[in-house]
Design brief:
Helix content: 25-40%
Number of strands: 12
Distance between the termini: 13 Å
Order of helices and strands: EEEHEEHEHHHHEHEHEEHHEEH
Number of helices: 11
Strand content: 25-35%
Structural class: alpha/beta
């Protein structure tokens, strides 16, 4: 693991809004999925949770947002604290009221509703009046002009990219402090992936929204994130500032398919998997 002592994550001046400490998650009372995962999410930053399919990224996000119970999962050890309050076993609706919203993998729009109706469902828990909600709806349309064009279209008939924009916009309508973004690049063309991440970066910078994003596309995630954690088999195997991870030889060789000699073939990368230094 990279030396975290010199990173912003442990700097006394950085306020961590979310602290996950040594959690274990079990499904169906028998399947151990997370095995002592710890991470910090600083206020106003973009933190990336990286790793392949089945590494435990989505489970980590659902443990934070309180959505494990719907899949017969539970946090059995460790703690999850948001602004100092324990949320490991909190009701998901209460977690949303605290300012933590998850954008699920696969977008999950209400297909029978229009794009605008989908966006307005995100404001369901708000009590600050219709004027504030209307202003935020305009803000979402400013970030996602395509949604303004499709506002009256049934969400189920929009493209994958438009549905991803709708899902992120719906999360913004809840006026969150922190968004848990699960696999935003899944199923999207590279150009759309860049567009989505550019918008996430702009929202982070202009609105001060904190992001914890789970992503298999290590290359794009490390270009936009400030800090990253790499998961494998339910454990954090490496972490550090995104710029350091991009230059780390293990990350370049295995996760980015690169080495000092250039891009490696799939066969070489597959062989490398059997000799990862952090597993030896």
């Amino acid at each position: 693991m990279l030396d975290a002592a010199a990173t912003p994550q442990t700097d006394a001046q950085v306020e961590n809004v979310l602290e996950v400490n040594n959690i274990e998650v079990i499904y169906n009372h028998v399947i151990l999925v997370l095995k002592g995962v710890s991470l910090n999410v600083p206020k106003g930053g973009i933190t990336a949770l990286l790793g392949g399919n089945g590494a435990g990224k989505t489970t980590t996000l659902k443990a934070i947002s309180g959505l494990l119970a719907s899949e017969r999962g539970e946090v059995t050890k460790g703690s999850i604290k948001y602004r100092g309050a324990d949320i490991a076993h909190a009701d998901p609706a209460e977690t949303v009221k605290k300012g933590v919203v998850q954008v699920m993998e696969g977008r999950h729009c209400f297909e029978h509703l229009t794009v605008e109706e989908n966006l307005l469902t995100g404001a369901y828990t708000r009590t600050d009046g219709s004027g504030a909600i209307a202003a935020d709806l305009e803000m979402v349309y400013d970030y996602f002009p395509r949604l303004r064009e499709r506002r009256k279209s049934q969400a189920g008939y929009t493209s994958g990219g438009e549905q991803q924009m709708c899902a992120v916009g719906r999360a913004l309508m809840s006026k969150p402090e922190t968004i848990l973004l699960d696999e935003p690049s899944m199923g999207l063309a590279p150009q759309l992936v860049e567009q989505i991440f550019d918008i996430v970066k702009t929202i982070n910078e202009k609105e001060g929204v904190t992001f914890l994003l789970a992503e298999q596309n290590t290359n794009v995630a490390l270009r936009f994130a400030h800090y990253g954690y790499i998961l494998e088999s339910g454990r954090v195997v490496m972490d550090g500032p995104a710029a350091d991870l991009r230059e780390n030889q293990d990350v370049k060789e295995f996760y980015l398919g690169m080495s000092d000699e250039g891009r490696k073939s799939f066969r070489d990368v597959r062989s490398y998997r059997r000799r990862k230094r952090w597993l030896s």
